[in-house]
Each structure stands twice: as structure tokens, then as C-alpha cells.
Design a protein that fits this description.
five-stranded mixed β-sheet, single chain, elongated, six-stranded mixed β-sheet
Length: 327
């Protein structure tokens, strides 16, 4: 039997640690050396899926490895988000999600299965989404002030359509109602398309819709845009004012962003963030995003973490005040 002195053991332990650190550093420096899975917690064909595929394709070019979009839908985005949270924190499983799942679901559901802050490391935003306050073409309001006047003159009598209870379409209107002190009645639909169709048909006069859901109907003249809900005007509708131009301080800008499982090494996060910045600087990527009613939007991991924390606080109040629940 061989015996080692304390000094020998310390030397061997130090050597082992050094080898591990060198191996880890090498793995991070070589990242990515195999395909990266990008989990989208919504079904194929939706806005989040489309944005993910635009960004993933460019990241594949920038980093020289395939970024593969993997749709894991269900439970309002919770199923895919939980899967990403439980993945190995090595940079080979990422989550491309929206603020509706990451910042609103925690307040809508009794349990989501994930902690939006503790279970993830923010990597960076990729895009902001345009949302539009629209009315049926025959509705007697041509701007935000006139809509407010109509609502105040007819408290509780004006209906607004949404894509469903707890959706962004619903909660943005609730935010607006709380900000300006009006009462309108919520009419939830099973999806944004059905809601937009009924606004165009005059069944329900008012709605907030995503820009992609609105553009064709706006072009047809069946609905009119009063304003965008974003903090500033959007590229897809440059002549439409933002609500903030009438109501200072109002702003609801939905976002798409990439997160990694908590514990992902900082070197990998920083490398991904730099690659996202390069991808979003590409004119073709920017144009594709604009066609989806979105705009390229990039920030640092630290800025993204701060935004997520602020959004959680904002939407907690809106959800609680609205009384919206999903389960």
C-alpha cells in the first residue's frame, strides 16, 4: 500500500484541478463545436418560431455550427421553458422566448415549473415586437384621445377583443385602461386571428393586435390603427404614432430574447451575446424582422437581466389588478 504525505496530496489535487480548469477553458474557447439546440416554447408557424428561425440561421453562419430550432409547445410556453431550465448549462441548449412567457406566466399560473430569474442566465435580446391599438373602420374614434373620450362617455359599454385571457392582447389593454382611467369590457377569443377578424367585421370595435396580425387588415381598410403600444414608433408602421405621444409614460414593448440555463459559463454567454450582436447587424436579418412587424433589438446580458426583473414587477401589478388567471 502506498502512502502520500499531505504535501504530496495537495500537489496531486492541485494538478487535477489545473487539468480540469484547462479542459473547461479549452471547451469554452472551442464553443460551439457541435450543434446547438434552440428551444422555442411555442408551436411552429407562430411569431416566436419565425423570429427564432431567422436568428438561428444567422447564428449558424456567425459561429460556424448549426443552431437547430426545437419547438416544445404547451401550457402557454411553460413546457418548453421548463425543459430549457433543466438542460445542462453548457451552452448547447438555449431558450428563445418572449416576455409573455418569461415575465407574465409566473403571475398567471399557480405554478409554471420554472423560476424566471433563478433558473436562467440571460444572454441577450434579439427583437422587439410591434403591437397596435386598432378599431373597426366605422368606430367613431380617430386617435387615442377620441377613444378615451368615447370610453369615458360610455363606461363599460365598449368591448375589446383579445387572443384570450392573460394574453398580451388582453393585458396591454388592461395596462392602458389603468393608465388612463377608463372601463371597457374584455371579450376573449381563441387566438389573435379570430379576434382580429371580428374587429374587422364590427362584432367587437376595439383590440390590440400584433403588427403581423394587423398589417393586411389595415391595408384593406377594414380596421384603422390609432397608435402602437410600443414606447416609440415601429418601422412596420412609421406613420402611426405611439400611445406615449399622447399619454406620456405609457409603453408596452413585447420582446424576444435568448436565455441559457442557470450556471452557463460567462465566457460562453459573452460569446453568444457577441454573435447575436453580429447577427442582428446584418441588413437581411433586420429586413426579415421588419416584415414580421419586429425590429432588431440587442443588449448585454446584464441589461437583459435588469429588463426581465423590471418586466416581472410591471406585469405582476397588471395581472393582479386585472384579475386574470389561467388555472
Amino acid at each position: 500500500m502506498r502512502f502520500f504525505s499531505n504535501t504530496a496530496r495537495a500537489i496531486l489535487a492541485g494538478a487535477a484541478l489545473a487539468t480540469t480548469l484547462m479542459s473547461t477553458a479549452s471547451a469554452q474557447a472551442d464553443y460551439p463545436n457541435r450543434p446547438v439546440s434552440v428551444i422555442v416554447p411555442q408551436a411552429t408557424g407562430g411569431a416566436n418560431d419565425t423570429i427564432a428561425r431567422i436568428v438561428a440561421a444567422k447564428l449558424s453562419e456567425v459561429l460556424g455550427q448549426q443552431f437547430v430550432v426545437e419547438n416544445r409547445s404547451g401550457a402557454g410556453g411553460n413546457i418548453g421553458t421548463v425543459a430549457a431550465a433543466k438542460a445542462k448549462p453548457d451552452g448547447y441548449t438555449l431558450l428563445l422566448t418572449t416576455n409573455s412567457t418569461q415575465a407574465i406566466n409566473p403571475w398567471l399560473y399557480t405554478t409554471t415549473g420554472f423560476d424566471p430569474l433563478k433558473d436562467f442566465t440571460p444572454v441577450g435580446l434579439v427583437a422587439s415586437a410591434g403591437y397596435v391599438l386598432v378599431v373597426n373602420s366605422a368606430f367613431p374614434a380617430n386617435n387615442v384621445n377620441e377613444l378615451i373620450a368615447q370610453a369615458k362617455a360610455n363606461p363599460g359599454k365598449i368591448n375589446y377583443a383579445s387572443a384570450g385571457n392573460g394574453t398580451l392582447n388582453h393585458l396591454i389593454v388592461e395596462m392602458f385602461k389603468q393608465k388612463v382611467g377608463i372601463d371597457m369590457q374584455h371579450v376573449p377569443y381563441k387566438g389573435a386571428s379570430a379576434a382580429a377578424t371580428d374587429v374587422a367585421g364590427g362584432t367587437v370595435p376595439v383590440s390590440v393586435q400584433s403588427a403581423p396580425s394587423s398589417l393586411s387588415l389595415l391595408a384593406s381598410g377594414k380596421i384603422r390603427a390609432l397608435a402602437v403600444t410600443n414606447e416609440k414608433r415601429i418601422a412596420a408602421l412609421p406613420n402611426t404614432p405611439s400611445i406615449s405621444e399622447t399619454i406620456p409614460g405609457f409603453g408596452a414593448t413585447p420582446w424576444y430574447g435568448i436565455l441559457a440555463p442557470a450556471g452557463t459559463p460567462a465566457a460562453i454567454v459573452d460569446k453568444l451575446n457577441a454573435a447575436i450582436k453580429t447577427a442582428l447587424a446584418d441588413k437581411d436579418v433586420q429586413d426579415k424582422l421588419i416584415k414580421q412587424g419586429c425590429e432588431a433589438l440587442q443588449n448585454t446580458p446584464q441589461q437583459f437581466a435588469a429588463l426581465l426583473k423590471d418586466d416581472l414587477a410591471t406585469w405582476e401589478k397588471i395581472v393582479k389588478d386585472s384579475g386574470a388567471r389561467v388555472d
